[in-house]
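Researcher: Re-running this chain for the archive, since the previous output was lost when a drive failed. Same request as before.
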Amino acid sequence: MATKTVSPPKFSAPSKTEPALDDGGDFSRVLAVDSVPDTGVDIAVRASETECAALAQADGLVAVHDLEASFDVRKQSRTRFKVVGSLRARVTQTCIVSLEPFETLINADIDVDFAASSRPTGQASDPAAFLGGEDPPDPIIDGKIDLGALAAEFLILNLDVYPRKPGVSFEGAEVGGDSPGAKSPFAVLRQRK
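Model: Regenerated structure tokens:
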């Protein structure tokens, strides 16, 4: 099995062999599927400082300090590939209670199937394809799998939607602007106990 580390792109014209940073500043590490040997390939990717800053801005985070992912890409058939791996990231989020920034470690397992798409890009999938309960494979676009975009996707999927700084609790909230002693329609019911 071959092993390679894909380094951040240089800020010059990308060649066909090195990953390219697209115009939007996204984290991109493109793997041409025709370069995957029959025995598979292990690939490690790490975001540069610039890419971490772009990811933080795109994901609404205070900061992304580190993001690295390792992938095991295996050929299942001529047109189907299995990508298994793990993501590790250190990010700073804003607490929804105290509005203070705090660091979070993200660890996620990655397990995604890819297949060559037989339909043109942008065409809707057949709704009957989702009835089996199994996700359809992600498309291989132009013979390539973007491992950087896959890592960025799993970062987003594993962020806490309502981040709370450890040790902070939400106390003393008044719902609807009523003070705790105000009469409510349910006060009569409480007295009947």
